[in-house]
Design goal:
5-stranded parallel β-sheet; 334 residues; single chain
Length: 334
C-alpha cells in the first residue's frame, strides 16, 4: 500500500510564487499539492471540498486577504495554516496578525525561480508542512470560548517561590506555536515585572525584528534584541540576534556567541539556558513552550540541577508537544 501523502492547498495571488512553491513541494514524495487559489474567497470554496491537511497562504491578496482567510478557516473548516510570506519588508509584521487569528507557523517565501537556489528555504518549508500536518486544530470559536471560561475562573495563587526576591532571570524557549504562546504570556505581565526575561524563539530568518515589534506592541513590557555587554534590566524582554547564540558572562552581561549550531539550532534554547544556569544558578526560572524537537531539554536539566525553577508547557495547550515533552521525560521539568 502506498503511504498516505500530506495534502496541501497553496493560496497566493502571484502565479510565479505558486509555481515556485509547487516545484518545491513536488520534490517531496510524501507531499501532494491538491489545489491552488489566487485569493481567500477562491480558497474557501476549495477547502470545503478538498479538505487539505495544510493550507499555505500569503498575506497580501486582492479580495479576501490572508488574515480574512485564516479567520474564515478557523471558523468554518479548521485546519493547520502555514503563512508563506516575504520577510524583512515594510508591513511584514502584518503576518503575525495571521498567527493571532489561528495560523500556526511562518516561513519565508522563496523568491528565486531556479529550484537549485532555494537551499535551506525549501527544506524549511517541507519540514514545517510535515510538522503541521499532524497538528489538531479546533474551531476558533471553541478556542475563544475556552479562553473566556478560563479567564472567568479565579487564577490560582502563584507558587510561594515566585514571591521571593532572589530571582534574577527568566529564560523562555519556544518553537512551533511559540509566538502565540509568548503573546499570551507577555501580554499578561505587568510593565514593572521585577525580573529580566530572555526569549529564544525558533523563527525563519528575516522575521525576528517583526516578531519583537509585534510582541512589544501587544505588551506593556519592553521587547528588544540583546546587545553584547548589556546588563539585563527588569521589565525588559530580550531576544538573541539572528544566527547567534545568546549567553551570559560571569557578571550577568550578555554575550553574543558565534559558536556553531547546537543540535542544529542557532540560536539554541539549551545554549542560553545552560549559560544562564552557570551564571544565575538557583536564582533563575526556565520555561519551555510548544515546539518540535528537543531543543531546551538539555538546558532545562542544567537549570534544574543548579536549583532553579523549571516549567514545561502541558500537552493540552501545546501546538506541538515536542520540546516540553522531552524535558518532562528527562525529569528536568519541576
Amino acid at each position: 500500500m502506498q503511504p498516505k501523502r500530506t495534502r496541501v492547498l497553496i493560496v497566493d495571488d502571484s502565479l510565479v510564487a505558486i509555481n515556485i512553491l509547487m516545484k518545491i513541494l513536488q520534490t517531496a514524495s510524501d507531499i501532494e499539492v491538491i489545489g491552488t487559489a489566487h485569493d481567500g474567497k477562491e480558497a474557501m470554496k476549495l477547502i470545503g471540498n478538498l479538505r487539505p491537511a495544510v493550507v499555505c497562504t500569503d498575506f497580501h491578496m486582492p479580495g479576501m486577504n490572508g488574515l480574512e482567510l485564516v479567520e474564515n478557516i478557523m471558523q468554518h473548516h479548521p485546519c493547520p495554516v502555514l503563512v508563506v510570506s516575504v520577510s524583512a519588508t515594510p508591513g511584514s509584521s502584518n503576518v503575525f496578525r495571521l498567527l493571532e487569528a489561528g495560523a500556526l507557523d511562518i516561513v519565508t517565501k522563496p523568491r528565486l525561480e531556479h529550484a537549485t537556489a532555494y537551499g535551506g528555504i525549501a527544506n524549511e518549508l517541507l519540514s514545517k508542512i510535515r510538522i503541521l500536518a499532524g497538528v489538531k486544530v479546533f474551531k476558533r470559536k471553541k478556542l475563544l470560548a475556552a479562553a473566556a471560561a478560563a479567564s472567568a475562573k479565579p487564577a490560582p495563587p502563584p507558587p510561594t517561590a515566585f514571591g521571593q526576591s532572589h530571582y534574577q532571570m527568566v529564560v523562555i524557549g519556544a518553537s512551533t506555536g511559540g509566538p502565540q504562546a509568548l503573546l499570551t504570556i507577555l501580554s499578561n505581565l505587568p510593565f514593572n515585572y521585577p525580573v529580566p526575561i530572555v526569549c529564544v524563539q525558533h523563527i525563519s530568518d528575516g522575521f525576528l525584528n517583526n516578531l519583537v515589534s509585534w510582541l512589544a506592541n501587544n505588551s506593556t513590557l519592553k521587547c528588544q534584541l540583546a546587545l553584547a555587554g548589556e546588563l539585563p534590566q527588569a521589565g525588559t524582554v530580550y531576544f538573541p540576534q539572528e544566527r547567534a547564540h545568546l549567553k551570559f558572562d560571569p557578571c550577568g552581561k550578555f554575550v553574543i556567541s558565534a559558536d556553531p549550531p547546537y543540535k542544529g539550532h542557532c540560536p539554541s534554547v539549551s545554549v542560553t539556558m545552560q549559560s544562564a544556569a552557570e551564571c544565575f544558578g538557583a536564582n533563575m526560572v526556565s520555561v519551555l513552550l510548544t515546539g518540535m524537537g528537543d531543543d531546551g531539554a538539555d538546558g532545562m536539566r542544567a537549570v534544574s540541577m543548579a536549583g532553579g525553577i523549571t516549567i514545561a508547557q502541558d500537552e493540552v495547550s501545546c501546538v506541538v508537544f515536542g520540546m516540553p515533552k522531552q524535558a518532562i521525560v528527562m525529569g528536568a521539568a519541576k
